[in-house]
Amino acid sequence: MTAPTDAARFEPGVRGGPEEALLWIDRLAKTFRLGGARGDHGPGVIRAVDNVSFDVRKGETFGLVGESGCGKSTLARCILRLVQPTSGRVLLEGADLLGLGTTEMRRVRRRMQIVFQDPYASLDPRMSARGIVEEPLVIHGIGDREERRRRASEMLELVGITPVQMTRKPHEFSGGQRQRIGVARALVLHPEVVILDEPISALDVSIQAQVLNLLRRLQEQLDLTYLFIIHDLAVAEYFCDRVAVLYLGAVVELANREAIFRRPLHPYTVSLLSAVPIPDPASERRRQRIVLTGEVAPVSSEPKGCRFQPRCPVGRDRDVCRRQEPPLLEHATGQWAACHFPGELAASRTESETAA
Amino acid sequence: MTAAESDFVLEVRDLETNFHTQDGVVRAVRKVSLDVERGHRVGVVGESGCGKSAMALSILGLIEPPGRVAGGSVILNGRDIARFSDRELQRVRGKEVSLVFQDPMTALDPVKTIGAQIVETIVRHRRIGKRAARRNAVELLRDVEVPHAERRLDDYPHQYSGGMRQRVLIAIALANEPDLVIADEPTTALDVTTQAQVLDVLERLVTERHTAVMLITHNLGVVAEFCDRVFVMYAGRVVERASADDLFARPVHPYSEALLRSVPRPDQLQRGPLPTIPGFPPSLAHLPAGCPFEPRCPVGHGLEVCGTEVPPPVPVGDPADPVVAECHFAEERWQGVTPSGAVSEGGA
Question: Would you call A210 and B348 a contact, using CB atoms and an 8 Å cutoff?
Fold first, then answer.
């Protein structure tokens, strides 16, 4: 395989430019230094987010999927600068956020908000529901007391909290209702981009459906763009327009949902999808699972070869995979994969299915 | 002990567990009966607060105040362990029945090595030397596919990953070859690939050792993958019991159907709003007069019989292996006479 040209690398700017993307993440990286020089950790650096690039278009839901430790939450925090990235750019409508000072960054945060996973830990237990939703308005100095009260009440009503409930404290609400309050708090500033960090993972299944329906309705009503961090692949498939699959801090595949879930190219995507149990025993019996062996080891030193190679059913014994890191290339229209042998695993599975 | 040769490792009859709170008596488990056949894999599904974990703890005699097992029997290998003293229970737990908890970090002692914790479990129930117990522990770790078992025996829990810790818990649960393992959400904290590996380990052990497993979970995909038989719990009752095939193909209780429909299927590209269940489960301290699901039920809501009469368990289908549902319309729903529940679409 020849070395790719730079133009073929994932550069949203090449196709339409960052002005088309509402949010453009450009070669974002975050490395953590490990304390001390203990030999058992190798060189003292963990590459938690490793040159990640993608664009989020206005009005879409862009999903970030991957297993725990793949760096998806660190990535979200880097985008909001709750964690300072090591290098790269975060462009909101073309303006780089990483160079901004505190006051300017505060203004940007009005346009970009986050909903956290845990509706129990992320709400102040001493405040009323309305107080919680009013707080961002206070912090950003918006309106007077009357105005803030009105806006908070409106937003709470929009997420399905009734006026009688608004004076109640978080502990008086169920998990699903608390997450609605978390959503109202994120939306009260009328942001354009909302980062949803596993917003339903702590909820019961029937409540998950309610919150997903709510998020979709609000997206349409308020013209929102979502960056959705989710480890549940069935939910990602249901909810996202485009998806990036992260493995050990890097994007290994990026495409629209149909391509990712129906025609995956990267062996990690194929393996991950094959592990999702289907709530139907008949389909379950047909499902052929790829069992990944080996443990996930964080990428520490300069990566040599493909980061998935030690566990990869395709590249485990291949020299090129061991030695050369595959670049993220567009292998089908709009479908990017970082693999020397894209589609090979999926093809062999289709063959064995038809043979069976 | 002839009773031990019965087909059932566990027979629970009219089990009742109450929690005495300021709000009144919370009836967490309300006269639940269920059987587990030897070597079988049963699933218990339901949402938070439906009583599934309280039931598991009640079976093992682990309910603590303000909770209390108020009635019923728990026949394990032919003996009613609900009547056992704490000392007698300790001899049974870990040996004939054991529990795998959801959270492997809190279930393991952080200041003891993994090996020490496994050995502890082994010597509690067997006359065996320390060295032999240690050899046994290595074998157990190998059985649950922990790589480099011998070396990892002297590691502490924090040196294990989440999936590996869950395997250790399974190893501990299996240390004395129990006849029944009760696993309470054993894969909930895990990633899908790790979940798949843990289910594989569990599956292999069940097949090889003929251990029965009761898997308590809210993940319907895991149930479809792992279980032969399913109990659906709602408001402290088993509202439907069926083979996994029947339940997923032809749910009889409207609650079962609504639950199945509220999860996106990974094998279908859906887009419209997900069907949801309106309202909330009833307070277990103040239960409604009729069917506990009536206020939320797309079939029975507003009907007099559903609002006033508690539905009895109705067997439908194959008399030799019936589906049993606590619904006034069970027979009609099995026959397909009443339309399947018009679960409200998109009621956010």
Answer: yes
Asked if A277 and B224 come within 8 Å (Cβ–Cβ), the reply is yes
pLDDT value for A3:
38
- Cβ of A213 within 8 Å of Cβ of B273? The answer is yes
CA-based nearest residue in chain A for residue B245: A281
Of all residues in chain A, the one with the smallest CA distance to B220 is A279
Distance between CA atoms of residues B314 and A72, nearest Å = 48
Helix (H, G, I), strand (E, B) or coil at B324: strand
The DSSP call for residue A145 is H
CB contact under 8 A, A213 and B260: no
Asked if the model's pLDDT at residue A150 lies above 50, the reply is: yes
- pLDDT tens for B73-85 read 999 999 999 999 9
Q: How far apart are CA A305 and CA B304, in angstroms?
A: 69
Phi, psi for A306 (deg, rounded to 5):
-80, 135
Q: CA of B228, closest CA in chain A: separation in Å?
A: 9
CB contact under 8 A, A205 and B224: no
Q: Domains plus CATH for chain A?
A: 8-34+43-355 (3.40.50.300)
| Least confident piece of the model among A248-252, A283-287, B102-106 | B102-106
Residues of A in contact with B248 (CB under 8 A): 279-282
C-alpha separations of A313 from A18, A356, B191 in Å: 36, 20, 19
For residue B200, list chain A residues with Cβ-Cβ distance below 8 A: 291
- Residues B216 and B67 occupy one common structural domain: yes
Q: Do A277 and B222 touch (CB under 8 A)?
A: yes
Residues B37, B108, single domain; the answer is yes
What's the CA gap between A157 and A151, in Å, rounded?
Answer: 10
Using the Cβ of A322 and the Cβ atoms of chain B, whether some distance falls under 8 Å is answered with: no
What is the three-class DSSP state of B323? strand
φ, ψ dihedrals at A123, nearest 5°: -115, 135
- Decide if A172 touches B, using CB distance below 8 A: no
Which pLDDT belongs to residue A142?
92
* CA–CA distance, A26 with A99 (Å, rounded to integer): 14
Q: What is the rounded distance in angstroms from the CA atom of residue A323 to the CA atom of residue A304?
A: 6
Domain interval for residue B8? 3-227
Size of interface A-B (CB pairs under 8 A): 127
Instruction: Give the span between the Cα atoms of B250 and B246, in whole angstroms.
Output: 5
Closest CA to A353 of A302, A286, A264: A286
- B263, B326: one domain: yes
